[in-house]
UniProtKB/TrEMBL annotation:
It comes from Fibrisoma montanum. GO terms for cellular component: cell outer membrane. The keyword Signal applies. PANTHER family: HEMOGLOBIN AND HEMOGLOBIN-HAPTOGLOBIN-BINDING PROTEIN 1-RELATED (PTHR30069:SF29), TONB-DEPENDENT OUTER MEMBRANE RECEPTOR (PTHR30069). This is TonB-dependent receptor. Pfam families: CarbopepD_reg_2, Plug, TonB_dep_Rec_b-barrel.
């Protein structure tokens, strides 16, 4: 990477070409001859551009010879092209026509070359200046929540994860996020960071999203889709831009809200001469998170009797039978969703009285100890911050070849949710990119350098409790109080809690800080046999890639060929990933190559057909390589475009899913490789599936003891998908825009971590599982033999009502079905003896047999009414969003539950001040402040109100 950077620096500083400049001058107005401010004017096919001033005038310098073509675009108006010749280059006049429906946008993500979005062979969504300006969302990234089929899960105020087409995850590693074509994901942790370390909001030019398999061109991991965020080129977008946003959230919360937040961003770009341009960006956000404060009793299949069953049909599940009791004063097993240290299935959080306990009232009764709220354990009152910065240098080697160097920086704090909650107090990431790009090729190299330190919130709460009093001693005092004094559950708790460390006390803070600042490989100094909960991930990525488009050489067809190589260095000191036997850190090498061939045929007058075939090969050094082909085609007749595609994709397991080994006696994830499986001791001390153990724990006298769960880790491989899709896109009379799709996918070798109970002392037998302190809970990664089928459809509509009003909406539907198979490939039966073949994964008789993790609402829709030009100064948008109830299966300390459906009203009003090149925007999401959950255990989302003022391209 350093060598590439040096070479490009020499090129940037040493190469120059002398050529004459042409100064093009013109004016842009609307149909009423009123000047339009902020219109983008570019030389088509280049990055040379400018915008109009408050008088609608523009001035553009270029060394391209006349004649040439200008492209003029502006939010709410139809894009125009104008030919500039020797007789008009000093007085170009353009009149833009208002257009509510814009469907001729250019995209690059679908096939890696520029093409009309209408003729893309796969479903593609694009958000640009028009959508950002009209969206009530506070940021461009948040505007994704209005895209059909997208589930945007809020982990923190600064961290949201994108999910499409099922298997919704808080850390989605089946979806690739690219920022200026750089992988946005953490090199070690393996999930996309979204805006935690993305580019500044002021620098976002567009976001393109492909829902569905995209590995044929973008490599492994683009199993469910791809998102490309592109920043603004400094040749086109120049001058000083600034934004100040004031807002507030957490309304309606007793003794807490509301809380303010401040978001400030600055961008400056300048072109020097005709060949060099640079840009500088900085953005800082401070505020208070949506607090995870769901204190209801946790719904999880780890609870005995969780499912209602039909005894006459072999005990098959008919629904959820567990009735939560949210009162710890009456509930022996109270386990608050966002309260930690009180977990029913975590050692140290609960105690089961033995079957021979002296008093019958407590025999075989499970009791949870008193835990701590998440906000108390974190100890930061929910404060969050985010810093993003970027510096880029661009140099035009020729009119068609541009070189660039870029530095991208992200820093902040956030909470992430995997099978448990983790707090990152100070995340840092640097990305450096060097690139040379032409009309028909690019070469690119970048590196990601990360410093991430975090700690497990739940394990920290358990450690605080245990450092004060062991679970056995606590339970003994509870039992003695409950029986001898004939008290209530609440009174017995209070008796056992006497002297407990109170949140915010000096002793509580001292223990918490000691535990959370000690790595999980070490014992906490001064505490008896208590391990730390801190881990680090300072992993790094080096990525090199290139592509060449042979279309101009072949002429008979469009052919592009490309490839890439990437190298990961894992660096966690053994806290997140194991070390090699010699003590060094693991590294991962991957490489891939692809080719794509396409050709457009004219069949009849106005009727064309464009088939495309692509194939790619990728290899991870620890796993077998594989091919991912794609075949697609588009039939176009006038404004009607019918598309179809078939493609395959696969996903390499994330580093955690490869190597992870939890510390001794700790809960956590176990990687699928043999070294991780054996490192966790599962080869000599196999665990027991939670789903098979829970019924035995509930009634050991009447239920058969579970058998050890044994797999062959030498067969661990990549996760695969095959998917087909058909779609239709059209624009009718510049009034109605329609985009519809239907797809089907089939997964194989699906990687799903199952909850497994492993005895802390080997050889104890299944009887030891009756006492939670005897075992730990592991999330074991492996390839199951199940067949998974996902079907879905969606439609998006926009209709121009006239006078600038647009009514738009979209609807998406999807379901997940499964055929269950055992390790030998035989179809499994439910407990009534019926084969589980293509059954919905949310059905209780299927969920009863184990978690499948298809987390997705079946239905969701959005409706918006907008007018960007109510007057020449005012624009407004009103949006309604609705999401169906969702069956969630998640994690060690999360749960299994039907999340209720939710809806949200969002709105914004904007006011333009052309003389100051500024826009004032008043907006809000969830205006009615009806708190809703997007996934179990996450913070519930309430209203977010804000006002912003944006100054665009001053001092140009």
């Amino acid at each position: 990477m350093r060598q590439v950077s040096i070479i490009l620096l020499v090129i940037l500083c040493g190469v120059g070409f002398a050529s004459a400049q042409t100064n093009i001058v013109g004016t842009v107005t609307d149909a009423k001859k009123q000047p339009l401010t902020g219109v983008t004017v570019t030389v088509r096919g280049t990055t040379t551009g400018t915008i109009t001033n408050e008088n609608g005038r523009f001035e553009l310098k270029t060394d391209r010879e006349l004649p040439l073509t200008l492209q003029i675009s502006f939010v709410g108006y139809a894009t125009q092209t104008v030919s500039v010749r020797g007789n008009n280059f000093r007085n170009v006049t353009v009149e833009l026509a208002e257009q509510a429906i814009i469907a001729d946008e250019v995209i690059v993500s679908a096939s890696r070359v520029e093409e009309s979005i209408a003729k893309a062979a796969v479903t593609v969504e694009k958000l640009g200046p028009r959508q950002f300006a009209n969206s009530p969302a506070a940021t461009p990234f948040d505007a994704l929540q209005n895209v059909k089929g997208v589930d945007l899960l809020t982990q923190s105020l600064t961290f949201r994860s994108v999910n499409v087409r099922g298997f919704g995850a808080n850390n989605n590693n089946r979806f690739v996020q690219l920022t200026d074509y750089m992988d946005n994901r953490s090199p070690g942790l393996g999930f996309g960071f979204g805006t935690v370390a993305g580019i500044s909001d002021l620098d976002v030019e567009s976001i393109e999203l492909i829902p569905g398999a995209s590995s044929a061109l973008y490599g492994p991991d683009a199993l469910q889709g791809l998102m490309l965020t592109t920043s603004k080129n400094p040749f086109t977008y120049q001058g000083l831009s600034a934004q100040v946003k004031l807002g507030a959230n957490n309304f309606g919360k007793a003794d807490f809200g509301p809380k303010p937040y401040l978001d400030v961003a600055v961008r400056y770009a300048r072109q020097i001469g005709t060949r060099f341009a640079f840009k500088v960006n900085f953005q800082r956000l401070t505020g208070t998170d949506f607090i995870a404060d769901d204190y209801s009793d946790r719904s999880t299949s780890a609870r005995p009797g969780f499912f209602t069953t039909d005894a006459g049909r072999g005990g098959v599940a008919t629904g959820i039978g567990y009735v939560p009791n949210d009162d710890p004063n009456t509930n022996f097993q109270y386990d608050g969703v966002n309260i930690y240290g009180d977990d029913i299935n975590v050692a140290g959080g609960s105690f089961r009285f033995p079957a021979d306990y002296p008093r019958q009232e407590l025999r075989n009764v499970l009791v949870t100890r008193t835990g701590y709220r998440e906000i108390d354990v974190i100890g930061n009152e929910g404060k969050v911050f985010s810093n993003r910065a970027n510096v880029a240098l661009h140099y035009k080697l020729t009119n068609n070849i541009e070189a660039s160097l870029g530095w991208y920086y992200g820093n902040g704090n956030f909470i992430r949710t995997a099978g448990f909650r983790e707090y990152f107090p100070d995340y840092n990431r640097h990305q450096f990119k060097a690139e040379v790009r032409g009309d028909n090729f690019f070469v690119r190299a970048y590196t990601t350098q990360q410093k991430a330190v975090g700690w497990n919130i739940g394990q920290t709460a358990v450690a605080i409790n245990n450092s004060w009093k062991s679970i056995n001693q606590w339970a003994s005092e509870f039992g003695q109080s409950y029986i001898d004094t004939k008290t209530t559950v609440g009174d017995a708790r209070r008796t056992a809690d006497r002297g407990r460390y109170l949140p915010g006390s000096d002793e509580f803070n001292r223990i918490r800080d000691a535990v959370s600042s000690t790595y999980n490989t070490d014992f906490v100094p001064g505490l008896n046999n208590v391990r730390g909960t801190r881990f680090r991930d300072n992993s790094q990525l080096w990525h090199y890639e290139g592509m060449y488009n042979f279309s101009k050489l072949l002429r008979v067809a469009d052919l592009l060929v490309g490839g890439n190589y990437r190298h990961y260095t894992l660096e966690s000191g053994g806290t997140a990933f194991p070390r090699r036997p010699d003590g060094s850190e693991y590294t991962i090498d991957e490489y891939g190559a692809y080719a794509q061939l396409s050709k457009e045929f004219s069949i009849l007058t106005g009727l064309t057909f464009k088939p495309t075939v692509a194939i790619r090969y990728d290899k991870n050094q620890y796993l077998k390589g594989g091919f991912t082909p794609r075949a697609s085609g588009v039939i176009s007749y006038g404004v009607h475009n019918l598309r179809g595609s078939w493609q395959s994709a696969f996903r390499n397991p994330s580093p955690g899913q490869l190597f992870a080994i939890p510390a001794a006696r700790q809960n956590g994830e176990v990687g699928g490789l043999e070294l991780a499986y054996n490192g966790a001791g599962l080869n000599t001390n196999p665990g027991y599936l939670q789903v098979e153990t829970t019924p035995y724990q509930a009634n050991p006298n009447a239920t058969a003891a579970p058998q050890p769960f044994i797999i062959d880790p030498t067969q661990y491989t990549t996760e695969k998908i095959r998917t087909w899709e058909v779609g239709y896109k059209t624009v009718v009379g510049s009034k109605l825009y329609l985009d519809a799709y239907y797809f089907g996918s089939r997964y194989s070798d699906f990687i799903a971590a199952q909850s497994v109970f492993q005895l802390l002392t080997p050889g104890g037998g299944a009887g030891a599982l009756l006492t939670p302190s005897n075992y730990r809970t592991l999330q074991v990664n492996f390839n199951n033999t199940n067949e998974i089928f996902v079907r879905g459809a969606g439609i998006g509509l926009e209709y121009g009502l006239g006078s600038g009003y647009t009514l738009s909406g979209n609807y998406a539907y999807q379901i997940g079905q499964i055929t269950l198979r055992d390790a030998r490939g035989n179809i499994r039966n439910d407990r009534a003896g019926n084969p589980v073949v293509k059954r919905k994964m949310s059905n209780p008789e299927v969920a009863q047999l184990g978690r499948n993790f298809f987390i997705s609402p079946e239905n969701r829709y959005n409706i918006s009414l907008s007018n960007p030009r109510l007057t020449d100064r005012i624009g407004a948008t009103l949006t309604y969003r609705w999401t169906d109830r969702t069956w969630v299966e998640q994690g060690t300390t999360q749960g299994d539950v039907w999340l209720p459906s939710w809806d949200s009203f969002d709105a914004q009003v904007s006011y333009r001040v052309p003389s100051f090149k500024s826009v004032v925007k008043l907006g809000g999401t969830n205006l009615l402040n009806q708190y809703y959950s997007q996934s179990y255990g996450l913070a519930r989302i309430g209203a977010l109100y804000y006002v912003s003022i944006t100054f665009d391209e001053l001092m140009r």
